[in-house]
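Input.
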Amino acid sequence: MRGFGTTRKRGGTAGGGAPPPPPPPPPPSRNTANRPEVGAGHGREPTGSARHDLRRARRVSIMKIGIIGAGNIGGNLTRRLTALGHHVSVANSRGPHTLTALAEETGATPVPVEEAARGAEIVVVTIPLKRIPDLPSGVLDGAADGVAVIDTGNYYPQQRDGRIAAIEDDGLTESRWTERHLGHPVVKAFNGTYAQDILDRPRPAGAPDRMALPVAGDDEAAKAKVRALIDELGFDTVDAGGIDDSWRQQPDTPVYGLREGIDGVTKALAEASPERPAGFRG
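Output.
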């Protein structure tokens, strides 16, 4: 299995390795799982009263969560989710021994990629899109019944991924393409989120400056589980439709990298064009 590596994000971008962010600098998840990002950095988890408020407001039970990809998005989700009390297993292509520092910092369990999903109720796949086919066969084997799989990835043909015919010629959305390789439905989320925002911008429910993230997926139960987790992390969500509608949150769309609330995200999704910009064609 070729290494799928990590991605750099502006403070961390979204997605399993997001490269270029939308309008702003490097992409947010523009992938943090998603595109080649610009200087990322280890983020700090919320502290003090903000952290206390978020923990008090939690509505999700403690879960086992697997994270495949330890770049900016994967690393910062590991930090936040362990701080919220979830049991996190994290893996990358280089092996558990390279995740010692992250494990010591967070209490997460470093594991081989093949074991990341074992017993997990939620699995986050946050690696560069071109590395999805390199994941081991049956990577989701052993996951809990009803597992929700989050795809944070973005397609950056010129910057990172090369041309993928199924996306450009056959019209598959990035996440539909990923879903077919994984053999399991996915929920697209965090692909346009700056990784650093996962650490710095959580807010209690009802806060006027609470950010909203678009979430797309065909499995309504899985989507609901993911939206509840994002709420626990301190962000609102907007239902962006099914996976075939997820082009509305791809790189260079109005919602990509947007730091606004529910109304702003809803408006941006409605304004998206299905035409893929030249800069995001191979």
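Residues 1-58 have pLDDT under 50 and may be disordered.
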